[in-house]
Amino acid sequence: MNMNLYGHDGQWLMVDCGVSFNEPLTPDDLRTSEIVCADPRFISEQKERLAGIVITHAHEDHVGALPFLWRRFKCPVYTTAFTAEVLRRKLLQVGLADDVPVIVVNENETKKIGVFNVKWLALTHSVPEPFAMTIDTPAGRIFHTGDWKIDNQPIIGDGFSSATFKALAKENILAMVCDSTNALKSGYSESESDCYRGLLQTIKTEKNRVVVGCFSSNVARLVGLGRVAKETGRYLALIGRSLTNMVSAARVTGHWPDDLPIIDAAHLGYLPREEVLVVVTGSQGESRATLNRLAADNCFDLSLEADDLVIFSAMRIPGNEQAIDRLAEQFKGRKIRTLQAHETDLTIHVSGHPCQEELKQLYTWVQPQLAIPCHGEPKHLDANAEVAKRSHVPQQLIGRNGDLYQLAPSVNIQRQQVKVGRIALLR
What pTM does this model have? Predict the structure, then answer.
């Protein structure tokens, strides 16, 4: 549930404003709230100093809280075309479509936002138009990566451009604020094209219905499954409002290929089993999502039978393992087969985040003076900092939520300077 603040000369810039799902508000709370975000009180109490909000990409943990919180900020929002389309649809649902100034920016464009000069740099991730940025002030230039990986064969968009980031070495980057999600994993992450090939290998031998559970925002995965359907003689359907909405946003912004049709899910019951490929929500075992309804056989558009196959094409988010395993057991109780990534040698899911060799590569290209790991648990931050140290970054700063990183004129961390916490949001 990312919410980052950069401050200079009495002004603040917010980078990302996301949510998490089904989490407790405090570590010792046994109850969970359906939608949770970072408590924005620190900045909402001085919103006149908030120059703007920048959204790096369209994942829920980076953009999902903004429609609920924007009234507390009332400032312009800057992002790229696909994320802007996703955001506008969310704003429409809460009656803010005409109120929020959403400013669309392009690759390599620079915007002056208060005292900050922000430049957008394209990279690769698991959603269309993921962007890093440099944030420039008289006190120094920051490189904020957002979520990323090095994917030379993405399903959507161009491959990762090393030249863009090698050029940053000449720009005297003060600090690189970097994604730590996969910092405990050695080597390189696999390409989204590898996942497409693994799913094709898995599905082409199947004789019955195939259902794939994945994150709705992973448009590249959906396009890959559209190709799989076309190559295996199946019809592709989507069940889940977030899926259909995301594909609609992809069509509007030119990210969905014209030659990949999607049929209405209401037609699935009329098709032979071997011609059905369905993508659904609920890969984390969410109680209200389509996979749970399919397991309970109360999904309006589709009923599964013995020997159909359900593929989980998503990571097991820590904390969700029991819910996912319960869901798989429910399917198996009805003799419906399931397949998770750890149960096959074929690549049926790939991460959108960098492993250690990719982190090393980016640190070596950018050559920042400071490394500031973010986006992960303490063990991930520590591992990221260790990679930065081995990559000859002179100094690493590791903090926790609520710490204030002072980057200039001197460097230090002021511990727990901001009161932080979580709040629950209502749909």
Answer: 0.95
